[in-house]
Write a structure and sequence with these properties.
Length: 260
């Protein structure tokens, strides 16, 4: 797919002929310098925007054939999104921030589900706090709980550690990894941090709106091969039409230290 914008009398190409597939349950990191098109790509994959040319297929559905309302409905059913700036509603508590989207979808047991999610991310004792009363790491964990509330088939995360210190950022990525393994949700993560990106199973590198590298990460390859570094090659697969189990069933992730 290609994405272009009109800038005055000039046409700006942000993404050019980008093409790849993400298998169900994969953990993919998209990296590249500022201005390379990472955030634009993430918005297109989530159906928040439409490409100038080309196609985005989400779980077998061509997003280009849907109206804006239909894309919003699809996102509510199958997509989770974690924003760099958290995007929590400041007048709602942590519990309400997670609970309200569930209620808007008409789900029964929204309160119990919200409590379960916040307990899972280590915030059971902070559920009644407003965003201004939470640290950056705690706010991001609320955002993660909210993103997983609809048991998404795919989770998009835009620089989820960009506003956090290194230790807190590492804990956030560990949490996303845990939820990825437990639920089978595909994760597509945009980051500038190559160390964090290396923890994903696959890394896609953008430069000037073009995919210049698409490879399995060293860490994932070594773990699978017992340290034997095989030749790097792109991976491609389609998403099967299977239903994911509800995540849960494991004890809460420890939250033994305060985050700054």
């Amino acid at each position: 797919m290609t994405k272009e914008f009109q800038s005055g009398s000039h046409q700006l190409t942000v993404l050019r002929d980008v093409s790849f597939s993400v298998p169900q349950g994969a953990f993919v990191a998209i990296v590249g310098p500022s201005g390379s098109g990472k955030t634009t790509l993430l918005g297109l994959l989530a159906g928040l925007d439409t490409p100038s040319r080309g196609t985005v297929i989400l779980d077998g559905v061509d997003l280009g054939r849907l109206t804006e309302d239909q894309r919003a409905k699809l996102r509510g059913e199958k997509v989770g999104f974690i924003f760099q700036s958290f995007q929590l509603i400041p007048t709602l508590t942590a519990l309400e921030n997670v609970q309200v989207p569930l209620e808007l979808r008409g789900e029964s047991g929204a309160a119990a589900r919200a409590v379960e999610l916040l307990t899972r991310v280590g915030l059971r004792d902070r559920m009644d706090h407003f965003p201004s009363q939470l640290s950056g790491g705690e706010q991001q964990r609320v955002a993660i709980a909210r993103a997983f509330s609809n048991r998404p088939r795919i989770l998009f995360a835009d620089e989820p550690t960009g506003n956090l210190d290194a230790n807190t950022g590492g804990r956030i990525v560990e949490l996303i990894e845990e939820l990825n393994r437990e639920s089978g949700t595909s994760v597509v993560l945009v980051t500038h941090d190559l160390t964090l990106a290396g923890r994903a199973g696959r890394m896609i590198r953008l430069a000037d709106g073009v995919v210049v590298e698409d490879r399995e990460s060293v860490g994932a390859r070594d773990q699978r091969a017992g340290g034997n570094r095989e030749s790097e090659r792109p991976r491609e697969a389609s998403i099967p039409d299977s239903h994911l189990p509800a995540f849960g069933g494991r004890p809460p992730i420890p939250d033994n230290e305060e985050v700054a």
